[in-house]
Amino acid sequence: MENGKLEGDQKEKFHSLTIKVNIVIIGALLISVPLTGYLNSLLDHSIQTTYGIYISTAINIIFATIIAAFFIQRIVVAPLKSLLDLTREVAEGDLTVTIPKKSKDEIGQLVGSFEIMVRNLRDIVENINHTSVKMAQSSEQLSENANETNLVSVQISNSILAVATGTEGQTSGIEKVAVEITEMNEGIKEIVGNTEKVSLLSHQTTEHAFEGENAVDKTVGQMKLIQNSVSESDTSIQLLQERSQEIVQILNVISDIANQTNLLALNAAIEAARAGDSGKGFAVVAEEVRRLAEQSNQSTERIAILIDHIQRATEASVETMRAVIKNVEEGIEITNDTKEKFSVISQSTTKINFEMENILKAAKRMSTSSEKITLTIDQISTVARKNTQNSIQVSASSQEQLVAIGEINDATKALSNISSNLRDITKRFNVL
């Protein structure tokens, strides 16, 4: 193995440019010596004796120089000139140049290194070109995604603003309903007097809110909470309307009883008048009964008027609730559409369950129902106000998201410009 290495070193030394130049010089001298002898033989003997050495030396130098220059031109200058031409072509961007066959001397090693450099440079340019194309495609895709996200965010922001506006209207309507129901409660208390109040049995609203990764998830949960609350409130108001009808029927019965009592009291007064002095006490009682019957009749009339107002207010509340339900359903549809586009939102449901006791007596059942409705309306009003605040917060988050998406768009544009500049730079080089 050491012998092989030694033999390789000897071959490299043999192919060395210095060895070649030395061989050329020695060969030139060997050629020039016979020529010099021949020329000296042609000279006069006296000249040959006096100047022969100088002339021989000069002729040797001239011939050796000419011969050496010729071979050095072939061995050194020509390859270097060819390499210079290739270098100029590469400098102009042509990386497809054909490298001539390399010799094994130092110039051949230089050409080999130049070939490796061109090949590496060509690979680098191709990689840069390929990378810039991929970068441009990625930036375009990122820009499209950012634009789509921007459109979706604008829709979310508009939907949230619409939800906030709707919840404000709902809150106002619910507060009006609460005022009307409060007035109805006062009327019922005035009719019933000191009727024993029945404890309100209801399961208050249980809220199970699971915070999501973004504001849209919160919006969906709040919208469903409002939808369930409004639906149950609509059911309660319809039940209240049915109870109002029952009270009207009871008032009609009371009015009939009062009229009959009035007639009986009138007949009793007539009989007492016929009885003379012995019937005076009975006449006083009959007159008092008749007066109470008239008062009862007047009270039933006032109650009927109040019930009529209550029914009208209830009908208006039903219409308001239905409109609110419709708005909430539209809001849920919009937020669900947004939720499908992002594919990162989990649903949170909140239900409100409550039960009512049957009213044992018309007045007590009416009072209990109205009080439960009052509490439910207050709870719905609280939820609606909270939902309005949440909608405002979500809207602010959406605006911040729009700003962030704008920054992403700017970054993708800058990335696209960079990839375009890279492509322009690589176009200067011909690699095919």
TrEMBL record:
Family annotation (InterPro entries): HAMP_dom, MCPsignal_dom
One GO cellular component term noted in the UniProt record for this chain: plasma membrane
GO biological process: chemotaxis; signal transduction
Compartments in which it is found: Cell membrane
PANTHER family tied to this protein: LYSOZYME-LIKE PROTEIN-RELATED, METHYL-ACCEPTING CHEMOTAXIS PROTEIN MCPB
Coiled-coil zones: none
Keyword Thylakoid: no
This protein's UniProt keywords: Cell membrane, Membrane, Transducer, Transmembrane, Transmembrane helix
Residue ranges of domain HAMP in the record: 74-126
Segments forming domain Methyl-accepting transducer: 145-381
Transmembrane segments: 21-39, 51-72
Major location (coarse): membrane
Protein family (similarity comment): Belongs to the methyl-accepting chemotaxis (MCP) protein family.
Signal peptide extent: none
Taxonomic placement: Bacteria, Bacillati, Bacillota, Bacilli, Bacillales
Protein name: HAMP domain-containing protein
